[in-house]
Design brief:
This protein is of the alpha/beta class. The protein has an 8-stranded parallel barrel with strand order 1-2-3-4-5-6-7-9, surrounded by 7 helices. Helix 6 links the parallel strand 5 and strand 6.
Length: 330
């Protein structure tokens, strides 16, 4: 059966604050563990009032402390925002606290706007992402003779790295380095099939991975009926329309008529970005997941279920787990 994992946006809503969003993420991870999900990731975003995971490693520490077995990680850390040694220290500490449970997904985008990029002191100029990945990877290995710089306490933890991407660039790098690859088709689906093909054709085995492992991001929103799921999905659609329109606010409650929200151009752009979404009843989810896995050959699905109400989100993930268990036999 295809593995299921969760990417949680740690959403701050009109009815919650940042602390509630972080606690809800921890509660969702605990339920996901019971539902059989493999891993639970959060992402680095800056200057976004509706997302509470900017201090990603700290949020992950809170989530990991509230769970026992599910893998916990970043999906991802925007590595050019940081010195590799700092990320190694943070995730090495997490690995010491929660051995065998920490993942580190790496992206090369800033995860924010250009004004905030300057506030992050991100240096402009040459793209050093591949070199930074290799430097970071080395910090997680056992200390070598005469090694002058160590990332304490990361050495020897061997935290597994993932390359994240929304274009074919990440696919090429993941293949060259022999790392697992996660494609962000939950918001940038256009290059999905091309990226998967490049990754699989060019993959070189490594100490971490002997064959390709492709995970794809997908928005899945489940409810008892198709109509209710479509209504729940309007929360994410509004967030995407707002982002396209340059508005960064809190997550909003679902509405009955998404066709009246935003401009026609903004709605069209948002629906293009969300084109790979699967929304509906358990039977609709079952068919959609079956078709997606058959088309892509994905080894794992990283599911976003961006729902306003926390209990409805828990219910969505429970329905998805049950539907997928029936859709794809072991």
């Amino acid at each position: 059966m295809v593995a299921l994992s969760i990417l949680d946006l740690v959403r701050v809503t009109d009815d919650t604050d940042a602390r509630s969003a972080i606690d809800n993420a921890r509660d969702l991870a605990a339920h996901a563990e019971q539902y059989g999900y493999r891993r639970f990731w959060v992402a680095e975003h800056h200057n976004m009032p509706g997302i509470a995971s900017a201090a990603t490693s700290i949020v992950l520490a809170h989530i990991a402390a509230g769970t026992r077995s599910i893998r916990v990680g970043a999906g991802g850390i925007m590595l050019p925002n940081h010195a590799p040694i700092v990320i190694a220290e943070q995730f090495g500490t997490l690995a010491q606290l929660h051995p065998g449970r920490i993942d580190l997904g790496l992206g090369r985008a800033p995860g924010t706007d250009q004004v905030t990029v300057r506030a992050l002191r991100r240096a402009p100029g040459a793209d050093t992402f591949p070199q930074d990945v290799l430097e970071l990877q080395a910090y997680f290995r056992p200390v070598q003779p005469h090694q002058r710089v160590q990332a304490v306490p990361a050495a020897g933890t061997e935290v597994p790295l993932w390359i994240l991407g929304s274009s074919t660039y990440g696919a090429q790098l993941a293949a060259e380095l022999g790392l697992p690859y996660a494609f962000a088709s939950h918001f940038a689906p256009a290059d999905l099939m091309a990226a998967l093909r490049i990754y699989r054709e060019r993959f070189k085995s490594s100490a971490q991975l002997d064959r390709p492992h492709a995970m794809i991001g997908v928005n899945i929103i489940a409810a008892e009926t198709d109509a209710e799921a479509r209504r729940l999905a309007t929360t994410q659609q509004m967030s995407m329309i707002n982002l396209i329109g340059g508005k960064r606010g809190l997550s909003a409650a679902p509405i009955d008529d998404i066709g009246s929200y935003g401009t026609p151009q903004e709605r069209a752009h948002a629906m293009q970005m969300l084109a790979r979404s699967i929304v509906g009843s358990p039977e609709t989810i079952r068919r959609g997941v079956d078709a997606l896995v058959a088309e892509t050959g994905a080894d794992e699905l990283m599911i976003v279920s961006d729902i306003y109400d926390h209990h409805a989100r828990l219910r969505s993930f429970a329905l998805i787990a049950d539907a997928v268990a029936e859709a794809i036999p072991a």
